[in-house]
Amino acid sequence: MTEKTLFGHPKGLFVLFFTEMWERFSYYGMRAILLLFLLDKTNGGMGLNEGEGGAIYGLYTFSVYLLSLPGGWLADNVLGQRKAIWYGGIAIMLGHIVLAFPAGEAVFFAGLALVAIGTGLLKPNISSIVSELYPEGGAIRDAAFSIFYMGINLGSFLGITIVGYLGQKVGWHYGFGAAAVAMFLGLLVYRIFAQPYLKEKGMTPKLAEEKKEAKKTNPLSWILIAALLVFVLVLQFNGTFTWNSKSGVATSMGIIAVAVVIIYFANLLFASNLSKIEMKRIVILFILFWGAVLFWAGFEQQGSSLQIFADRYSELPFGMPSSWFQNFNPFYILVFAPILGSIWVFLEKKKLNPPLLVKFAIGLFLLGFGYYLMVWGAKVALTGVKASAFVLIFTYLFHTLGELCLSPVGLSAYTKLAPKKYLSQLMGIWFVAAALGNLFAGLFAGGFDEENVQQMPQMFMSIVWFCIVVGGIILILQRPLKDWMGGIK
Predict the structure, then answer these.
(1) Spatial separation of the C-alpha atoms in residues 316 and 192, rounded to whole Å
(2) What SS3 class is residue 430?
(3) What DSSP assignment string belongs to 31-89?
(4) Is 256 in contact with 232 (CB distance < 8 Å)?
(5) How remote is the C-alpha of 61 from its chain's centroid?
(6) Which of 14, 137, 322, 449 lies at 20 to 30 Å from 440 by C-alpha?
(7) Whole-prediction pTM value?
(8) How far apart are CA 267 and CA 222, in angstroms?
(9) pLDDT over 80 (residue 406)
(10) 46 touches 40 (CB < 8 A)
């Protein structure tokens, strides 16, 4: 690296920092008001019921993460990462422009689809270029990703603040329009500064440099694929799948995605000629996958059920928009990420750093504790008195601490434990965990029926128990699975 800037990092890092910051502004800002707009019946919203609104929210956030898989493939095989980022940003901006104009459902859904497609192109590829800036790897790359992560959360904070205010206090479509302006600013930064400071990085598709010898597909792989098709067809013909309602589509898509993941892991284990130690590591990744799905299903309710609770049942200090509660997550990350990072380093020096699976379990326990606070808040709300704002403020604190324990650990586990020839695929599967979590979060929010508010404490308590049980299982399995990791910590 010959050209350096602040803290000795390449200037290209800060081009990517500001591009991603504005993209996250648009995504998190729009997400903060999306469900409120879908449910609003009096101020120009779509007037949907909770089940339909939650299903659409879940399908949208599910698609955003799921489309990162084809987005990464297109960049590697056709476009190159730089073009994928550019075209993705344009699609996001156009999608928000469509959402900014009042129109029918079809036009609105077209706008959501454009945003999801664009995010699928941009999100996985901008992160990979960050890694390309540091071919030497090591601590400096870790530091670069910490700076990049700060950009993500700064964009999130600004987006929720500005879009949330405009959407709830001025008009929904003004909020959507602000998200379009933010993405335009990101594109402007990228267009002006990418070429001078990123040079040729990410310009060429990463096509295979050598043609791999044709391999015979293991017969078991075909059997597993056939079993998946039979499973899907049986559920289709026996009426389990329903495609005539928004919640039915979301549920059906979730079932199919779960089945695909199970078959994928089965194929890796039994039909991919892995060594014994690799097979053991795949089992660990399988366990972590479902723990991550549960975590994101709870965590990502900040834009769904927790947003509904904030809007209907919580005090709003100083008359602030209810969507501003979502700002506590990026704020806490900006405050606590460096502190928690320092704690892990200190514990490592003392040889007291918790093992990977223990941190994962701690993340689930912290999420569960946050929802236990929501159980208490929901019981207060049922008395007809709005819950104190501190319920959500502290809920977000524990959820964010859980995120900082689980998310980077899970990402690290997948990069360390995945067999090298399946690394890209398994990183995509990690995104599928977030996709499924978002989908389930939306479906869960559909249960917030104003006609039956008595169910709120039980709904939140169900998440508490799931977190305790799954976190406890991972904690119990930590010791016997330690040897399965093959020396990787």
Answers:
(1) 41
(2) helix
(3) HHHHHHHHH-SSSSS----HHHHHHHHHHHHHHHHHTHHHHHHHIIIII-HHHHHHHHH
(4) yes
(5) 8
(6) 322
(7) 0.82
(8) 9
(9) yes
(10) yes
